[in-house]
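Follow-up to my post from last week.
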Amino acid sequence: KNQVEQSPQSLIILEGKNCTLQCNYTVSPFSNLRWYKQDTGRGPVSLTIMTFSENTKSNGRYTATLDADTKQSSLHITASQLSDSASYICVVSARTGGSYIPTFGRGTSLIVHP
Amino acid sequence: DAGVTQSPTHLIKTRGQQVTLRCSPKSGHDTVSWYQQALGQGPQFIFQYYEEEERQRGNFPDRFSGHQFPNYSSELNVNALLLGDSALYLCASSFRGSTSYNEQFFGPGTRLTVL
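User reply:
Got it. Predicted complex:
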């Protein structure tokens, strides 16, 4: 069974600090891994995507890493801002036939305090 | 260019009733996927529609059904509602022929409450 596990479940940091979120997965056959940001009551928005051959991808203050051997990924947020408060979801997709079927993690809830 | 739109925004139903949720995909997209997101959980894949047919299905009972129209818009129907069906229902669209690994764009969701 394909699974995506995220840690920590929740995190509270002060504005301006850095943080790292973790994602472990067992998804086969692996196609790609995305990190999404989901504000409360809104749909998820893609931050980064990585394929098997990529091990780092940046998007502004967000940097994602992927270790396909250990099946782990991390999302590093630099110089956090209040607007970073959201749920961060790791999504790993398997390619089945002509479709990409995603498996979602439960997310890490990040709260940034002033 | 409008992104993915969903209607209604919120909905309140009672147990046993039936509900229909609607989704219009992002312009240029031909594939629609539906997800159920319970409070505090990640989205769970319900099914995916392409060329007006259900192509993939997650682990959801037959009470959950859908439809895709020729203009690529889609409906999600849930029959015999249970309290446990209360959730945020997300629609995501993508372009099947995309080389960008089928990036999905999500709508804002429909919040369904079953009393």
